[in-house]
């Protein structure tokens, strides 16, 4: 029996398919996208204008700092805080943070994925890049640095904790999905982003059976 998500405290806005890493266990399968692209800034703004009552709006991708309109989008999203979301958080691998220092203080928090040369086969560590950014950042945002752990469904399915991604709805191409991984799962169902978005999502099943991070999906 398919589960549905009743929580939806947070929303993840996916602004680009482009990424400077080709992680073999990417939950979005970005390595299989032949022509990755940035989403239009106006379309992205239109896709979130009907949101309200969101705890955190995550800006993610792909690698969001590669988006050519990153500065413009960041400034526009920050103007809707706190009327639509309480906090604006950037999720990044740190690749281009030094190129965007002027607009990064508009985020309440910057979450950086830390990679080592052993994170996956062929990985290039970013420890020095992250250290350089932290030492030069003027402040204004909290910085959270988390080691990246790449897992497969076989590993995650043995865990005993519920999937934390259930709390995050995902938006891609103007459609709203029941979790943040679902937008890149072909079988996943979605709904338009209307003012009734939270109510509309309650009937949309979670695609746990197709998800790399599925944990206790049978329960």
Structural features, described:
- Helix content is 16%, strand content 19%.
- By secondary structure, it is an alpha/beta fold.
- The chain has one domain: Alpha-Beta Barrel (TIM Barrel).
- Strands 5-4-3-2-1-6-7-8 form an eight-stranded mixed beta sheet.
- The longest helix has 10 residues.
Distance between the termini: 9 Å
Number of helices: 5
Count of individual domains: 1
Please indicate the percent range of residues in DSSP E strands (runs of 2 or more): 15-25%
Task: Please mark out the parts with pLDDT under 50 across 5 or more consecutive residues, or reply none.
Answer: 155-161
What structural class results from the helix and strand content? alpha/beta
Write out key terms for the chains shown.
eight-stranded mixed sheet; TIM Barrel; alpha/beta; 219 residues
């Amino acid at each position: 029996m398919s589960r549905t998500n009743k929580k939806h405290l947070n929303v993840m806005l996916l602004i680009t398919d482009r990424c400077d890493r080709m992680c073999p266990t990417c939950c979005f399968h970005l390595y299989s996208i032949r022509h990755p692209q940035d989403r239009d800034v106006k379309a992205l703004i239109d896709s979130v204008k009907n949101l309200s009552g969101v705890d955190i709006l995550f800006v993610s991708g792909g690698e969001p700092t590669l988006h050519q309109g990153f500065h413009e989008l960041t400034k526009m999203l920050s103007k809707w805080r706190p009327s639509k979301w309480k906090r604006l958080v950037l999720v990044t691998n740190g690749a281009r943070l030094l190129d965007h220092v002027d607009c990064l203080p508009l985020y309440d928090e910057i979450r950086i994925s830390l990679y080592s040369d052993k994170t996956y086969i062929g990985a290039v560590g970013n420890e020095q890049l992250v250290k350089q950014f932290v030492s030069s950042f003027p402040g204004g945002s909290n910085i959270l640095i988390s080691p990246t752990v790449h897992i497969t469904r076989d590993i995650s399915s043995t865990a005993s904790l519920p999937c934390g991604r259930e709390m995050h709805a995902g938006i891609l191409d103007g459609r709203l999905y029941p979790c943040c991984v679902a937008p890149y799962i072909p079988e996943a169902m979605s709904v338009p982003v209307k003012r009734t978005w939270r109510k509309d999502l309650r009937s949309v099943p979670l695609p746990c059976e197709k998800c790399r991070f599925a944990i206790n999906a049978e329960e």
